[in-house]
């Protein structure tokens, strides 16, 4: 990534200011930034600040979108993480023909935000970058995924199943709960990594004589360009990346669709695991109401759930949850998590504004 | 480890030679070296070369024992691995009052020997160190563990269950087979790592609301000096060492003995996994004969099997194997694997000598 000298990244604002003055504009449009960051990249969208009296249009209007590298400080260190965030926000504002002075709120949902200290560090970075009037909201990336399906409303549950898996839920009065998301050693078995690791294990077991024959063996070996199950050991431990192993999920799905019983069992078990994460969150937050039948949104995100083939893992997970909670209302988000983050910022501002209005009415009455 | 200049490590031999001459000895005693190396240390024992006509005394006579660091080239690199091997052999010979010229055979059973290239590299090191008359045998470390229970005879099956697990077997006519030993990603679930990872998972699941209450949670947290199951995620991923996680096995055993159902299920599953590895090897090699009732030795090695508490994992594994193969004859080795390696070398030499005798008789008749 190109390194900018202090502040140089924002030089475009001066030119833009002069251009706006030249064009005779007297007031600039107020905007909101929404950011979503995982371990591979960071996305920032710029959205106009719509009036709080109206409901949000669907799809929400987006002025611009920018992409930068990883902003998870655990992966790339603090300097690179901060640089990625500043770069992606400057890029989005520049593309939108806007500046930092037009920004009313920033909602930043990045992986690696687990402790109040993580949140405080990011808030300090944002305070250095933006004028003092800007409001900041720092969240875990699962929260942006939920908001991407609920038009920014923090209510319901989100199930993410990509390389890893997590279920995260919120009640309307602000309580939250999570399940899974603890990584493979601690049993995230419905994740892409979990499914693929089970498939690799099944191939080794069949070769050892500990498990039944499975078509997974030949299909995985072909996919990895290996000639014997012996070589799977070396392949597996040569690179500790979970995503590399999770990339074998499509092989498992196609074997299951071809009728392989071992592959089918792995996917059925994954469905139970994913459903049990959601059920645990729903139960703890009583999202289903006292009688267990209240409707609640379930936002479904991630490669494992989106496959939508003959063997549709996402659909089976919903069926399994529906048996216990008939009010489940599944949502496949039509917008990306960064837009979810922007919508979240809009909702926070709207709530704040309603509270202010209420307060001034109370004073004047 | 202290580094020796080329050959300096063997300086003791000259002094010993002069001393022997001074004492009026005309012939030196012939010896054998047995080495066992895992990822933590390397052990070498020096054994006198006993006459092949006699059967081996039990326990076998050992002249000396030496210990050095890790000799697995995958862990410490080639130079350090070679240095560790040379140091431990020189130390054992020096302690036995012997020299390289007295050595008739070296059996080296070290972890990390999986391919012919690994074997060839170690053979080259040994050829540089010893005179040309010395015979070398390079094996996987599971083979020394088997030999430690069978007085050096390569027949039967060995089950190792420490941090990892593997089952390895040999027929009397030299065929071999293995099961498991593929590491945690590929499903070595009966291993110490496997048992402990399941226990950690159970604690996280109980906390999430995905699994039942278990006494494992409070006992693991107390053992690790943590205050909340949340902190288990950070603890688990802060250090990728499998042995660190496997060290939690005693907590699981004591919870199971205290009546915890989740801990009991983890141990029962581990028993099934370990037994299934042995059964797969026995079946493939037909160690149980055609009718399935022939006797065969099963050598049991490693912390998971040796606990010998109220909840005795090793005993349960044997019971489980006995149901399918009534001829199983369990052996807990009375000697360490390095002695197994020395006995193996003696057996190889004895077989070689019998073949030579047979050949000379054929010529003379």
What does this structure look like?
Two copies of one chain form a homodimer. The first copy, chain A, has 14 helices and ten strands. Chain A has a five-stranded mixed sheet, with helices on both faces. A five-stranded mixed sheet of chain A has the order 8-7-6-9-10, sandwiched between helices. In chain A, a hairpin with a 3-residue loop joins strand 6 and strand 7 (165-170). Chain A is globular. The model of chain A has no long low-confidence stretch (mean pLDDT 90). Chain A has a domain at 11-16 and 29-133 and 336-363: Nucleotidyltransferase, domain 5 (2-Layer Sandwich), CATH 3.30.420.40. With 365 residues, the first copy, chain A, is α/β, with parallel strands linked by helices. In chain A, helix 6 (192-208) runs antiparallel to helix 11, helix 10 (249-257) crosses helix 11 and helix 11 crosses helix 13. Chains A, B: Belongs to the eukaryotic-type N-acetylglucosamine kinase family. Chains A, B: Its EC number is 2.7.1.59. Chains A, B: Residues 33-345 form the ATPase BadF/BadG/BcrA/BcrD type domain. Chains A, B: Pfam families: BcrAD_BadFG. Chains A, B: One of its GO terms (molecular function) is glucosamine kinase activity.
The level 1 CATH classification of one domain in chain A is Alpha Beta
- What is the percent of helical residues of chain A? 40-55%
For the record, the CATH architecture of one domain in chain A stands as 2-Layer Sandwich
Assign the CATH superfamily of one domain in chain A: ATPase, nucleotide binding domain
Low-confidence stretches of chain A: none
Q: What does the average pLDDT of chain A come to?
A: 90
| Oligomeric state of the chains present here | homodimer
Question: What is the tally of beta strands of chain A?
Answer: 10
Helix/strand order of chain A: HEEEHHEHEHEEEHHHHHHEHHEH
Query: Taking Cα atoms only, what radius of gyration of chain A do you get, to the nearest Å?
Result: 23 Å
**Beta-strand content of chain A:** 15-25%
Q: Helix segment count of chain A?
A: 14
Shape annotation of chain A = globular
Q: Name the pair of protein chains with the most residues at their interface, and give those residue counts.
A: A-B, 31 and 31 residues
